[in-house]
Amino acid sequence: MDTPEEPWAATRTPSSRPTSQKSGRSVRSARSPPSSRTTEETPLLVNDERDDDEEDTDEEPPARTSLLQSLRQSMPWLSGGKTSFWKKRWPSILALVLLFILVIIILVGFLAAERIEEYAMQAANFKPTKLALDSMTDHGVRVQVEGDFSMDASKVKKQSVRNFGRFGTWIAREAETGPTDVDVYLPEYGNILVGTAKVPGIKVNIRNGHTTHVSFFADVEPGSFDGLRNVANDWIEGRLGQIRIKGKASVPLKSGLINLSKQSIEDSIVFQGNKLPTLPQYDITKLNLREAKDGHKGMGADVSLVVTNDFPVQITLPPVAVDVLVDGCQPSDKHIMVGTAETAELRVEPQTDLEVNVTGRVEKLPDSLIKVCPDSAKSPLDSFLNNYMQGQDATIYINCCKFPDPSTPGWARDLLKDITVPVPFAGRDMGNLIKNFSMANVHFYFPEMFAEPGTPEASPKISAVVKVDIGLPKEMNFPLDVSGVKADADIYYHKKKLGRMNIDKWQQAKSTRIDAHGKEGPSLLVESDIVKAPVEILDDDLFSEVVQALILTGKPVMMDIKAAVSVGVDTPMGKFAIREIPAEGVVPVKPIGAGNGDGSGKPMGSLNVKVGNLSIIDTSPTSVTVQSLVNFTNPSNYSTTIPYFDIKFLVNGTALGHATVKDTVVHPGNNTNLRMTAVYDPFTSGGPAGKAMGQEFLSQYISRYNVSITLQTHKGSIPAQPAFGAVLSQFPYTVPFPRVSGPKPPSDGDDPDDPDKDDDSQKFIRGATMHLISSTAVFSIGSPFSSTTMYITNMNATSYYEGQPAGQITSDLPFAVPPGLSESPRLPVDWDFGSIGYGAIKKAIGGTLKLSAFAHVGIRIGQWREQVWFQGGQIGAHVRL
Fold it and tell me: Which of 62, 426, 537, 766 could be 780's S-S partner, Cβ–Cβ 3.0 to 4.6 Å?
């Protein structure tokens, strides 16, 4: 008979007989004029094909008219001959005509069978407009089918078949089937029975161009459940290249009053893989993650989605519950169940998008979901969340089906059980979730002195209290506490990769949820104490730019952080870790200097260096090793632990020695009594030029000139990080050389013994006593050393009063200068008698006056010897006889 023409462009197998459908209920078909519809009891499908047949009218057909005209011309008695002849011959003529018609009918019936079948195969056209599930029965479903049936002769290839078919169907006008059982098989799957449809009788107009709207109810019973599940799984997993469906039926057929008995019909349709229907598209319009309700444990989810429905199907689906699964570690692993989801009863309308509301629940995450996969740093949950948060499609699996409604027939449960459908879960690119990133109580750790360069132990480390304000998606409406974090972060400056910070051990953390306010959505404030996280510098040139910006500009430097963050969370589903969540943020690094971080104030600020309690711990012929206590102000907001740090000091670009600090902790603000060791060795450091510069430097210093030294790092400043010292060496820092306060420790407050005060108490030569009769002088000397005795080996000095010479001391007699205050022995003085200076001294007998002096002095400390000059002004001198 006819075969439905589906929108998937199925290909028929030409060797089979026409396919028919079984029926259980008949519908009438009425004749209709050309280009009009023949309507059954219930409307269904439409086909506006042009009718090239003529209508049934009171006029005779042209063929019949032409035949009569020819008979009248050749046998005039038929139309106007003698009445007596007609009356005599009419019985013979009538018998001849009946015999002629009978022969024609016999010939048509004998010759037409194959041509009519071929015509019907090619011309029949059925377009379904509605397929509705009327009800579910104990053995299957009752469906309503509506559609339009028509015959289209233009689709017939052979002209002879086309003409004969049009002529035969024009005579027959209508065809009617009786109730029929249609069995559907899958030949490639062992010829399994897909199902049986009980189709009622159907009457259709079979004339070319006429459309019959048919509507009927059919009872469909499924066949082999196992076979159907195999086909479904092959289709879901993409293994179904094509599928051939074969239908068989024994159809009672008649046309008008003529009963054509039962016709055995068998036909096949082949669907190619690219023509098979696919899972419908969907769009998630609402996603709400919340704590479970109604006394249940775990987390709940409310999802609303719109499903695209392009099929002419109407069906009411009962409430359904499914299991939701995700991939395991390997594609071959068994899927991991995450939770369940349920839908209420759904009514599907033909070619109408469907809004579906789904309620899900996750009570507890299984260990296999949160356990790290072998040879990987991620768990299956990590992989799923990472794909989702980066906007990539993740895949979830729906394991069908459970029916909460007990009235759902058992065959539906048996048919759909254990069918797993992969569903793409559209990801959401969450962008930068970090709203704010700050670090407080920053503490740097220099590497240990003996750490091997290039090893993890050689990396500087950082400890800090990190505060991260994370913007939460509006869908997250459940309690979430962060108990630990770790991260692998890349650090960028001006979009170039500067370094890496690897926090590979779990750090304790706490979190506080901040509710939405104004235009700001909800967020989670996470605080974590990061302890000794190693920082690896990858670009030394870029690092030098950062240091320069921090030291010279006095402004914050913005560092971009791109990290893979792992967090330990406590949720309604339990405690577990989510690893390698992508995160980005900006960290402002405050400048190393004074001001408010806005560029105000002097770069590097005021160090206010004060040195005291000098002691000589070693000497050599060219060097002196001095140990001292140092007070200074750290202008930055960072503290530092320094196991070992060495720095050169230079004067006018010439190296004079180096200073070292060990096992020292530097805090922001004032730092007091930090022990430092300095090696003064200008000859070894700078050669003969260094020795000459050293003499000049010492001479100016003891003469209380304003002298400065330059501090500069070098490759050995941090032995484990030679590149670090080399980079910093590009930024030498010049500071005024601090005054030595004397043997007692320096203080931080306003001290009368402040070495920066220009008074006699802080000078190397504190005062003098002149004895005129004996022509000698005794000097009061304040040694800067706390435990070392210094020796003056020789002296050639001249004293002045208001620029006029008064006397000269020349002595090669060494004398000791012990720690603290002491007096020199009486040194011989050659007075410049008659000079203005000597006259002023005589006038001051019994009193005091201010003298100045210039001297060349030899100094010895241990093995080290040096010749310096000294120029002193406003020395208080007592004059005695």
Answer: 766
* Cβ pair 714, 729 in contact under 8 A: yes
Residues 28 and 167 in one domain: yes
Alpha carbon distance 702, 865 (integer Å):
16
Residues 6 or more apart whose Cβ sits within 8 Å of residue 547: 727, 728, 730, 731
| Rg of the chain (C-alpha set) | 54
pLDDT at 875: 81
The domain that contains 810 carries what CATH number?
A: 2.60.40
Domain of 413?
Answer: 282-425
At 275 the pLDDT is: 60
H-helix segments, 589-636:
none
What whole-number distance in Å separates Cα of residue 595 and Cα of residue 606? 11
Q: How far are the Cα atoms of 333, 827, 848 from residue 844, in angstroms, in the given order?
A: 108, 20, 6
DSSP string covering 466-490: EEEEEEPPTTEES--EEEEEEEEEE
DSSP 3-state assignment of 381?
helix
Instruction: Say if residues 323 and 340 touch (Cβ distance below 8 Å).
Output: yes
Give residue 39's pLDDT. Answer: 38
Say if 600 falls within a structural domain.
no
Cα 851 to Cα 799: distance, rounded to the nearest angstrom: 7
Domain membership flag for residue 842: yes
- Ordered alpha helix ranges (H), 372-509: 380-389, 410-416
The predicted structure's pLDDT at residue 429 = 61
CB 3 within 8 A of CB 246: no
Distance (Å, rounded) from C-alpha 614 to C-alpha 787? Answer: 8
Q: What are the percentages of helix, strand and coil residues in the chain, rounded to 5? A: 20, 45, 35
Cβ(817)–Cβ(791) below 8 Å: yes
Place of tokens 């007998």: 845
Amino acid at 801: Y
Helix boundaries (H) for 703-813: 722-728
As given in the structure block, the two tokens for residue 650 are 């230079």
**Mean of pLDDT over the chain:** 77
Helix (H, G, I), strand (E, B) or coil at 684: helix
Contact between residue 389 and residue 427 where contact means Cβ atoms under 8 Å apart: yes
Say if strands 37-39 and 211-222 run parallel, antiparallel, or are unpaired: parallel
Spatial CA neighbour of 403 closest among 392, 386, 417? 417
DSSP for 708-720, written as a single string? EEEEE--TTSSTT
The reply to whether 98 and 226 lie within a common domain is: yes
Assigned token pair, 491: 């650090």
- The reply to whether 776 and 728 lie within a common domain is no
Whether 236 contacts 228, CB under 8 Å:
no
- How far apart are the C-alpha atoms of 873 and 752, rounded to whole Å? 21
820: helix, strand or coil: strand
The residues facing 766 across adjacent strands are none
Structural domain includes residue 744 = no
Give the whole-angstrom CA distance, residue 483 versus residue 528.
Answer: 9
Tell which residue, 187, 184, 178, 191, has the closest CA to residue 221: 184
Residue 686 lies in a domain: yes
Given a cut of 50, the residues of the chain with pLDDT beneath it are 1-92, 94, 97-112, 594-603, 743-758
pLDDT of 111 reads 43
Q: Which of 275, 304, 319 is the endpoint of a domain?
A: 275
Taking the C-alpha atoms of residue 169 and residue 9, their distance in angstroms, rounded to an integer, is 26
My answer on whether 78 and 222 are in the same domain is: yes
**739, 706, 698, 740: which is closest to 867 by C-alpha?**
698
Euclidean distance between the first and the last CA atom of the chain, given in angstroms as a whole number:
152
Q: Are residues 732 and 778 in the same domain?
A: no
CA torsion sign for 383, 388, 389, 390 is positive
Q: How many domains does the chain have?
A: 5
Q: Any idea what the Cα angle at residue 393 is, between residues 390 and 398, rounded to 5°?
A: 135
689 and 833 in a single domain? The answer is: no
Sign of CA dihedral 78, 81, 82, 83: positive
**Of 367, 394, 425, which residue sits at a domain end?**
425
* Same domain (yes/no): 391, 456: no
Is residue 623 domain-shared with residue 556, that is, in the same domain? no
